[in-house]
Amino acid sequence: MSDLRVQYADRIIDGKAFAEGLRARIGAAVSEINQTHGLTPSLAVVLVGDDPASQVYVRNKGRAAEAAGIAAADHRLDASTSQEELLDLVATLNNDPAIHGILVQLPLPDQIDPAAVIDAIDPAKDVDGFHVVNTGRLATGQMSGPNAALVPCTPLGCRMMLEDRLGDLAGLEAVVLGRSNIVGKPMAQLLVQASCTVTVAHSKTRDLADVCRRADILIAAVGRPQMVHGDWIKSGAAVIDVGINRVPAPTDEEPDKMGLVGDVDFDTAIAVAGAITPVPGGVGPMTIACLLAN
Ligand code: NDP
């Protein structure tokens, strides 16, 4: 462990430990469903093609599901699969009462329109929370009851970690860096619902560092390695680093070694922030745990 991690240990939000606790609670809920209803929650995981990163994600999701007592059925399709064939599989899974959740791993090969596939998933089985019905429910604050939104897993995990660390978020100034449909936009919605004052920043934002420095809560989801430095961060702010960037990390023994870094420059940020998620071991593990929760 680096000296900084030791020096500022109380500032680190340990997503791995938080996710372990959440997964244990999900496991308990699953066994109760099992005992009360004689039913095993079941997740269908669909992977088209052989993208190595997607294979790792799909394997990890399947393993985590099974560890929580959720049955995971893998559907591996060839990279040349047509959109029609994939839509047929989605329709079969939608109509199968033994399947409760459907996850189609993105990205998809070029011949398939991801929006068409996401639109085809039954919103009640849309564990990624990407279907327009679920994004609409999130935007309108439909968060409980039988028609509650299924919320995208990454922002859901970020909000859980923030509330765990900060308690009530009402009135806090939040800046979300990034406006993608899977992270930035739903993150902003969740923070608005928590009564934060929210700014969404992106590649056209002027004076980005100044905007970030206003934040009591700074969410970085840009996909730019270590872009956010300590001098962009207000003293004491909570920093959630969503970024996962693969960068060269050569050592004497392994000159070609690659490593993972976030969108935040951890070493300069931790000296200023009040709380911060590391990469790896922050947002990533919570994303998978929230998938199981959905
Ligand atoms: P996208 O590429 O879809 O979106 C990136 C966003 O960042 C866009 O809104 C873009 O702005 C903005 N942006 C890009 N460059 C800059 C810049 N120089 N200044 C300001 N804004 C910028 O990425 P995702 O939202 O899908 O993912 C973001 C990061 O989070 C990635 O590193 C990804 O790997 C990671 N990720 C991690 C997950 C986890 O479980 N930990 C899950 C999902 C993603 P504009 O819209 O103007 O182009």
Description:
The protein has 294 residues and is α/β, with parallel strands linked by helices. Helix 7 (153-166) runs parallel beside helix 8. It has helices spanning 3-7, 15-37, 52-67, 83-95, 114-120, 132-139, 153-166, 184-193, 208-213, 266-270, 283-293; strands at residues 42-48, 71-77, 101-104, 173-177, 197-201, 217-220, 238-241, 245-248, 258-261, 275-276. Helix 3 (52-67) links the parallel strand 1 (42-48) and strand 2. 40% of the residues lie in helices and 16% in strands. NADPH dihydro-nicotinamide-adenine-dinucleotide phosphate binds next to helix 11.
Secondary-structure blueprint of this entry?
Layout: H1 3-7, H2 15-37, E1 42-48, H3 52-67, E2 71-77, H4 83-95, E3 101-104, H5 114-120, H6 132-139, H7 153-166, E4 173-177, H8 184-193, E5 197-201, H9 208-213, E6 217-220, E7 238-241, E8 245-248, E9 258-261, H10 266-270, E10 275-276, H11 283-293
Parallel strand pairs: 1-2, 1-3, 4-5, 4-6, 6-7, 7-10
Antiparallel strand pairs: 8-9
The structure holds NADPH dihydro-nicotinamide-adenine-dinucleotide phosphate.
The site of NADPH dihydro-nicotinamide-adenine-dinucleotide phosphate (NDP) has 24 residues, from helix 11.
Q: State the major sheet.
A: 5 strands, parallel
Distance between the termini: 34 Å
User: How many strand segments?
Assistant: 10
| DSSP summary: helix tally | 11
Helix content: 40-55%
Low-confidence stretches: none
